[in-house]
Structure formats: structure tokens, C-alpha cells
Amino acid sequence: MKVGFIGLGRMGGPMAANLAKAGFSVTGFDVLGTVVDGVAQASSASAAAEDADAVVTMLPNGDTLRDVCDRIVSTARKGALLVDCSTVDVDSARHAHRMASAHGLLSVDAPVSGGTGGATAGTLTFMAGGSDQAFDAAMLLFRVMGKRAIHCGDAGSGQVAKICNNMILGISMIAVSEAFGLADKSGLSRQKLFEVVSTSSGSCWSMNAYCPVPGVGPASPADNGYKPGFASNLMLKDLKLSQQAAEAAGAATPLGALATELFGEFVGAGYGDLDFSAMLPHLGSMARER
Ligand code: NAD
Predict the structure, then answer these.
(1) For residue 110, what are the contacts with CB-CB under 8 A and spacing of at least 6?
(2) Number of Cβ atoms within 10 Å of the Cβ of 113
(3) Distance from the CA of 10 to the center of ligand 1, in angstroms?
(4) Which among 5, 11, 56, 87 is the best mutation to test ligand 1's pocket, defined by most ligand atoms within 8 Å of the CB?
(5) 15: closest CA among 144, 205, 192, 159?
């Protein structure tokens, strides 16, 4: 099977390498001219898509996806499959589906969770939107690049699932950080708060698996000077996408809006490259408004 791979960055590079290792014939393109082991280099996005049975995109945002998609749909051969794994706004994802369908191509939006570690290890989770036929065809690729793929529904629903998950994650990390801040100022040890909450009704992934306190709970970026992990600027990107989708759908997301504001301030203060769990020391340094 021939695969075109467009966007060979921190995620796309290792994903393309895994496809090549698994025996797919992969031709890649990145505007930076990035070279990936086992992947042939094309001179443009449309050249990478020519002759491919499937084209995977892993790009930074919706505008770039629209631009690349407009370029490749006319060179890709009829019946080929487009798999967009980028995290983008729902409208851009649906635009890509419409363009694909107008040119006789199958398509899935399939954003991922698992980060760069999952991309390298081939253990990503894919959240996919599109027809049954497109999802079934994409399973061949998902099996190599990931360990789980969930068919969420029609065009765009993979993106909706991804931003809903990350909105919960952003809010829950703030909630956990606030609780530790309250415990600190009330004389309760951080270790004891962890022991209680991680086995009680306040337990959640941000507390149990990714605790923002150094030396408490399983190893996490907090134990490594808040080196990401999942950088705050990526969290902010996903929170903004959640608010864009909520606005378009008319959904009330007051905590999502507040989380977006708080991460916006944090990133604006120059901490975008720190892990998003560094919200803990940030909130700890803030004074209570009375
Ligand atoms: P990245 O910036 O490292 O990679 C994006 C790549 O796309 C870059 O190499 C860039 O040069 C290339 N690119 C930009 N415009 C292009 C064009 N017109 N044609 C070809 N290539 C182009 O970003 P990343 O961390 O690999 O993330 C990619 C996507 O995955 C983003 O949408 C991000 O939100 C999502 N994501 C990232 C993570 C993570 O932990 N990094 C986790 C989950 C999802």
C-alpha cells in the first residue's frame, strides 16, 4: 500500500516512520524539508499525494489543513483515502471531508491522543469521524500507528470528541491544582491530599495519573521541572477550539471558557512551553481576589 504523509513534525515524523517500518511504501512532504528514516521525500504536498492509496496529514491548524487539502484533492487518485490526524476546528475538518467527497475520495478526521511518546511507540488512540467504509479502510493505518481507534460518528465527530476530552482535561487540571493550593494554605500535606482524593470521588486522570505535584503519585512532568509532556500552548490551542465549537453549536461551557482564559494568561506570561500541569505553581503564586 502506498501512503503519502504530509506534515513530518514532532508527531507526523515518527508516525510516518512507523508506517515505513511496517512495510508501507511511504512518501512524505514537509515545508521544512524534514527527512524521515525509510520515507521517500516528495517536492510538494500534491506530489506526495499522487499515486497514493492513502494520504495522511498531520498539520498544525485548520487553515493549513484547508490549504493542503485544496492542493491534494485534485492530484490524489479517485477512491484514495484521506486521513487527517491533526487537531483542528470542526469546520475545517468538515471542509476537508466535503473537498474529498467532491473529488471522489474517502476521508476520515482522526485526531489522536497519546502525544509524541505514543507517536513514537505506535500506541496512539485515534478518534475518527467519517463513513463506515472510510473508517474500515483507515483501520489498516490506525493498527500500525496506534493501539486503539474509536469510530465516533460522521464527518467531524472525531474532532468534537478530541476537543471535548481536552476541555475536560484542562478544567480538571485546574481543579486539581486549586485543591492542592487550598490544602497548602490550610496546612494539609500534599501527599495526604493525594492519598485521599486519588481513592475518592474527586479522583480523575489529572490527579491519579498525572499529578501536578513533584514527588507525589506516579512519575509525571512535575517530577521533571514541568518539561512537557503536553505543553501549555497546545492545551490552550485545544481549549480555544473547544470554545469555537461551543460558540458554533450554542453549547454553554462556562468552565471551559474560564479554563481558556486561565491558560491564555499563563501562556501570555511566557510559560507556553511548560507542561500544562505547571498551572499548579502558577495558581499557587496568585493572590486570592477578595
Ligand atoms: P509540529 O509543529 O511539530 O508539526 C507540524 C508540521 O507540519 C511541521 O513540521 C510543519 O513544518 C509542517 N507543515 C506546516 N505547514 C505545512 C504545509 N503546508 N505542508 C506540509 N507541511 C507543513 O506539530 P506536532 O506536535 O507534530 O502536532 C501536529 C498536530 O498534532 C497538531 O494539530 C497538534 O495539535 C496535534 N497533536 C499534537 C500532540 C503533541 O503532543 N505534540 C498531541 C496530540 C495532537
Answers:
(1) 83, 84, 85, 126, 127, 128, 129, 138, 142, 149, 158
(2) 18
(3) 7
(4) 11
(5) 144
Task: Look up 147 and say whether it is catalytic.
Answer: no
Nearest CA to ligand 1 atom 29: 86
Which of 27, 35, 36, 59 maximizes ligand 1 atoms within 8 Å of its Cβ, making it the mutation to test the pocket? 59
Reported as a single tens digit per residue, the pLDDT across 47-59 is 999 999 999 999 9
Mutate to test the pocket of ligand 1, among 39, 58, 125 (most ligand atoms within 8 A of CB): 58
75-134: pLDDT as tens digits: 999 999 999 999 999 999 999 999 999 999 999 999 999 988 899 999 999 999 999 999
The ligand 1 atom at the shortest distance from the C-alpha of residue 29 is 20
Q: Point out the ligand 1 atom lying closest to the alpha carbon of residue 230.
A: 40
Query: What atom of ligand 1 comes closest to residue 111's alpha carbon?
Result: 44
Taking the C-alpha atoms of residue 55 and residue 84, their distance in angstroms, rounded to an integer, is 8
Q: For atom 31 of ligand 1, which residue has the closest CA?
A: 60
Supply the pLDDT for residue 287. Answer: 84
The residue annotated as part of the active site, out of 2, 78, 147, 162, is: 162
